[in-house]
Amino acid sequence: MLVDSHSHLFLNDFSEDLPQVIGRAKNAGVNYIFMPNIDSSTIAPLQATCKAYEGTCFPMIGLHPTSVDENVEKELLIIENELQNKNNYVAIGEIGIDLYWDKTYLNEQVMAFERQVQWALKYELPIVVHSRNSFHEVYNALQPYKNTSLRGIFHSFTGTVQEAKSLLEFSNFMIGINGVVTFKNSKLPEVLKSIPLNRIVTETDSPYLTPAPNRGKRNESANIRDIVSKLEEVYQEDFDLIAEATSVNAFKMFGIPQ
Which of 126, 175, 210, 251 is disulfide-compatible with 152, CB 3.0–4.6 A? Predict the structure, then answer.
């Protein structure tokens, strides 16, 4: 049993062979795939994919920080309407702050992040947090919620030991580990020694961040096996134990009966 806690299989990258992609995932033992939304343009394909593969693919709803611009209020209204009108969303995501590409809308990103955190508390859903070049901004935004019921996943963690320790202060949160852990010059394997296995979930972020040995190719959910194999090496634990532990962590986070 393997779980891909973060995958964008609803994107056009998979439009020509999605059935085969899902088939390869299941053949690899990946029977649960959780899909974060990006913005209003991706809601329809996200819902269609999760309907077509109900029981395997599970939708989240949220406004990605790189989609935040002068139309942020309109986008947030659409997200809020989705939350009110559909009850099949298992999380609010992916949300957060991204200062890698553009800092123009930093204030709007922070506002959108905080508003969606409030919705997570209201609807008792976890959040899936995107943070790129914005560790301190995200950390500070979440500080007021440290001792609340807010729960979630820090997606695509690639930080330092100190940053890992800071995130572990949020006791209701997991840390998402993807293909970066397999990269040749990645420092993540060393950092993971400070992160307990019971605080980790596995993710691909497909079609991005393809793990070794397939770097340069389109990523897909079946490649979770390569990530778990690397975690087996890092934690010096059996593959099946890693798979079970990370799957149980994901099921608890998303409220999926095991």
Answer: 126
Q: Lay out the sheet containing 57-59: strands in order across.
A: 2-4, 30-35, 57-59
157-191 tens-digit pLDDT: 999 999 999 999 999 999 999 999 999 999 999 99
Q: What is the Cα–Cα distance from 157 to 160, expressed in whole angstroms?
A: 9
Domain count within the chain: 1
The residue range of the domain holding 169 is 2-254
* Token pair for 35: 């899909």
Residue with tokens 């070794």: 212
Q: Is the CA virtual torsion 75, 81, 84, 85 positive or negative?
A: negative
pLDDT band at 258 (very low <50, low <70, confident <90, very high): confident
Q: How far is CA 145 from the centre of its chain?
A: 19
Amino acid type, 4? D
Give dist(CA 43, CA 119) in Å, integer. 18
What pLDDT is attached to residue 140? 96
The CATH code of the domain that includes 105 is 3.20.20.140
Instruction: Please report which confidence band the pLDDT of residue 87 belongs to, taking 50, 70 and 90 as the band edges.
Output: confident
The residues, ordered by sequence, that sit 6+ positions from 74 with a Cβ below 8 Å of its Cβ are none
Residue identified by tokens 């991706």 is: 42
